Amino acid sequence: MAAASGPKFEATLQVITTSDIPLDQSHHESPSPPSILISATTSSKSSKLTVIPLIFVIYFEVSGGPYAEEPTVAAAGPFFDILGFLIFPFVWSIPEALITAELATAFPGNGGYVIWADKAFGPFWGWLMAYWKFLSGSIYNAAYPILCADYLMLVLPFFRRGPSRDLAIFLFNLLLIFLNFTGLAVVGYTAVALGLLSLLPFVVMFFISIPKLDPSRWDNASTLAGEVEHPQKTIPKALFTAALITCLGYLIPLLSGTGALKVDDGRWSDGFLAEAAGMIAGKWLKFAVEVGSVLSAVGMYEALLSSGSFQLLGTAELGFLPRFVARRSKRFGTPWVGILTSSAVTLSVSYMSYEEIISTANVLYGMGMVLEFATFVWLRRKCPTVSRPFKVPGGTAGVTCMCVVPTAVAVFVIASAQRTAYVIGGALTLVGLVGFFAMRWLKDRRLMEFR
């Protein structure tokens, strides 16, 4: 399951509300073009996230737990696998968290990384950033109902294949869409409960495994920020706490399973964590891990749907999309047009294979991340006087060096995709290019109302 969740710290920080003034003027820069006027449209009925719910929303955006980390043990062995999980945060997760913390607090406004790319390179690249990130998140989301259905069929074989399986996937989508519609505060506190419940079995597994640990076995050869209270302080704190929880969430079960069990590395395939829990503590813990995997899938779905729907709201407030896309529910304050649009994309790809879904989403996400790293570096050069409540240490050269390795990782992810993913990703990008000029044509002729 971890494979389905990209390390997307910035995705939860897409909606930052400011005063009703142009973005640039709020930072004492020259007046902005009309395309990036920001207005504070946060509904009074939309409760803001505090630090604890935000931590767990970010956690589900980034990871969701150690589920599906098992094949890495089979591929590299315990030693190199543990070493990889210790090193990877420093080459990807921490740089991305630092970038997000700086830009989300320096350039507040509904839209997050869409604002950043627009400010750095202009409306065309802002549109592409919005398009790639929105599609990647919505496509990723299609994987989670599939995973839920896969676990359901273990209990009820009737859902193993055919129309019954398709119906189960569809009903999972509807249920999770409704939960998201009830409000970001509900999603936030649901994320707290789901996060604690999905991690608890591994904490129990770790403590039970302590007497059995044999360290010698480890050396084998192996944007929601506008919905956030006090974002300048809350966002960096939540980002780095979520990063810590994510790293521990991967390492604790890995240390327990590889250290307490003397099994061949080849047995570490998808689902083996549940088997390992059963070997260490009994069937009850195996069942708890399996339930935790379903809860993790639910949490990741809700977090991605929230960020995707608020991203569309922010994109409309930036003037890229018609005004109606920014509409919120009068009762819950949620961006219902965004939720329906994101859900429609998710449902449309739900019946692709799991591998095709992940590979296609990775291509789109990778392109968006390369653009985001370039945006971060260029904004340091273009807007050096902008107030940055949180600033990554180092000048332009320093932050450029910091971005080299994560950019290489993003390029590697794109290069490793399936051929089908290139075809689908290329076709979708072409549609996005047409969409940009279509929106400009509609705006110029005033055929639709834009902000």
Q: How does this structure look, described?
A:
- Belongs to the amino acid-polyamine-organocation (APC) superfamily. Polyamine:cation symporter (PHS) (TC 2.A.3.12) family.
- InterPro entries: AA/rel_permease1, RMV1-like.
- Pfam families: AA_permease_2.
- Keywords: Cell membrane, Membrane, Symport, Transmembrane, Transmembrane helix, Transport.
- One of its GO terms (molecular function) is polyamine transmembrane transporter activity.
- With 451 residues, this protein is mostly helical.
- It is 66% helix and 0% strand.
- It contains 15 helices and no strands.
- α3 (78-106) runs antiparallel to α9 (231-260), α5 runs antiparallel to α11 (283-317) and α6 packs across α7.
- The longest helix has 35 residues, at 283-317.
- It is globular and about 65 Å long.
- The chain starts with 50 loop residues before the first helix and ends in a 7-residue tail after the last helix.
- The model is unreliable at 1-46 and 216-223 (pLDDT under 50).
What structural category arises from helix and sheet content? mainly alpha
Share of helix among residues?
55-70%
Report mean pLDDT, rounded to a whole number.
79
Question: Element order, helices and strands?
Answer: HHHHHHHHHHHHHHH
Shape: globular
Strand content: under 5%
Uncertain spans, ≥5 residues at pLDDT below 50? 1-46, 216-223
Describe the main β-sheet briefly: none
Number of helices: 15
Radius of gyration: 22 Å
Distance between the termini: 39 Å
The number of E-state strands comes to: 0
